[in-house]
Amino acid sequence: MSGLAARKAWNLAAMALASLCALAGLLLLATILRDVLAEGLGSLRLRLFTQDPAPPNMAGAGGLRSAFLGQGLLTLAASAMGVPIGVLGGTYLAEYGRDSRICRLISTLSDMAVSIPSIVIGTFAYAILVKPMGGFNGWAGAVALAIIILPIIVRTTEEMMTMVPWALREAAFALGAPYCKVITSIVWRSAMSGIFTGILLAMARVAGETAPLLFTSFNSNFFRLDMSQAVPSLTVSIYQYAASPYEGWVGLAWAAAFVVTVLVLMLNILGRVVIRLRKRG
Amino acid sequence: MKGGISKNLAFRCLTGLSSASVLVVVAAMLATLAWESFPALRHFGVLRFLSSSDWNYSTGTFGALRPLAGTFLSTALALSVAVPVALGMAVFLTELCPHRLRAAIAAALELLAAIPSIIYGMWGLFVLAPFLEAHFQPLVSGTLGQLPVAGPFFRARLAGGVNLFTASMILAVMIVPFISSIAREAMSQVPAMLRESSYGLGATRWETIRWVVIPFSKMALAGGVILAMGRALGETMAVAYVIGNRHAALDSIFSPYVTITSVMANEFNEAGGLQLSALFSLALILFLANFMALSLAKRLLGGRR
Lengths: 281, 305
Fold this sequence. Notes:
heterodimer, A: 281 residues, mainly alpha, MetI-like fold, 2 domains, 11 helices, 77% helix, globular, B: 305 residues, 1% strand
């Protein structure tokens, strides 16, 4: 019977260890979230959104209005490039390229491209857009971000469209619709919420990216719509302000980190809700 | 009717070109990185570049050994802490956790894996680094640091908490939700029949996990760990804050050091000539290493489906 007792003791020890790991891990992660939310809320002021950056010696002044605008511009430009190409590319893989080997290769490559380190994408954008143009510019940053979202959207679009039952397409064919019409008004429509979720998750990823912007769009203090110059972004501002020795700037960095975190979490939650609604409906 | 056919063809061409863009971008990236790193690799020679630990702006000599070692060490240290914790979490979630909590905790883990790395980096700089310096470093210096030969390697020399160890720990914190999400999914795919059979033979819960669940999902678990490794290798912002970016011989795990990504984040903007080319070489190495890790992970994860 001692064998059984020993086995039970081992079982108890292993299960206790696993529970301990789970508890420690969850506590640690909850602590991070709490710290970011608490520190961020503590330094959140209205001027974060309404004022442009100020020199560190001006206590109680300065915000990141220009960075919000810049981030919006970069995200908009990146989506304008990445989303249509991604959706169309995913469409080809799901519809025309089911049995083609080169399409399998593109699909696999997109899967892997999702995980290319973002700083490497930044160096690529630097080589093709910053060096030839002679200085940091917003377009280079937008292209770097577009390269990040492209494979994400290609893969989710492909996956979501493959899930649409084939019988649906056949029904449309039987009505005499050409293939492009079948795709645009039947398949896209049935896969729409899934594709939309993919776009939301891609946006969430882009909203927090810093490394690809460091040497492409860089940073600036000006509130302007000019993409041919350096364009400020929230994440690069966080990076520079948090590493500075000035208390006011560090406070701004925490507040901006809070905004970015909430934004990313919201986009993620929204994406999940959209998918769930479709499953139920 | 003719209009319909040409429209069809146009749509097909448009989507085809779009899907080819992925191929074009990845190929162009590889070609550009190779082209830009060529001057440094030719000037120093590939082998000498990889094996030299010299990184000197004034003499213009640049070697990749220290950044490579830093990336390797920080990733290895991060994995050795994160993998057991994440697997423990996955076991808890699939075997022990009350059913009502499972979905909620799994969703929370996936959300945590989506938090941007700069947030983790900032937390590491302001919270983790001071904490480790005040509480963990004295403990290790006082115990492992007193060992005869290896001792000095565990003794803190510089103040600030910005060092290789802190960087590894922040990496570990980042990849825990990532690994445990994948491991949880892999373990929950074990057929209930297998589990029941094991219990039917009189096995305890731990024995079922050890001899049924883990063998069944080991490929996917390995794939998840390698995926996390790829992520840790290329992680920039979290590491750049807390590694210190100091080009000096590593004398202790509590000393500042460099990684491929920290060198790139800190020096790319001010670099020119050979230094810039050397930085591109580092980017190329990172790109290739990451690609190899990913294709291995993909093979392991896809093997079962």
